[in-house]
Amino acid sequence: MPQSNEEDLVDKVIGNPAFDQLYGYHIFFRRAAIPILLFLIGLLTYTLLDSFFSHQTNLTLSFIVVGLCLGPVLNIERYLGVIMSQRK
Question: Is 24 left (phi over 0), alpha (psi -120 to 50) or beta?
Fold first, then answer.
């Protein structure tokens, strides 16, 4: 991807008024908070299922649960952005 296109994408996100309601924290939420939340969901699932399954089965089930949580977590983040933009 050419350098000018990368700068254009970043400028679109930073200058987009749809993300102003989060006061510049939208990039933090997208880049850091959501992966941390998914990691914590994976740890919780692994811990809760630890006494019922073997290590490999437990690890596989934890990956499946985190994968299934990815869509709802991203949609909740988008929904919160819509609610915050409607408050203005």
Answer: left
Task: Please list, in sequence order, all residues whose beta carbon lies within 8 angstroms of the beta carbon of residue 52, skipping any fewer than 6 positions away.
Answer: 58
Name the token pair of 82. Answer: 């819509």
User: Which residue in this structure is represented by tokens 């709802």?
Assistant: 72
Q: pTM of the entire structure?
A: 0.61
pLDDT > 80? residue 68? yes
Digit-coded pLDDT (tens) for 33-63: 888 988 999 999 999 988 898 889 989 999 9
Domain ranges of the chain: 3-87
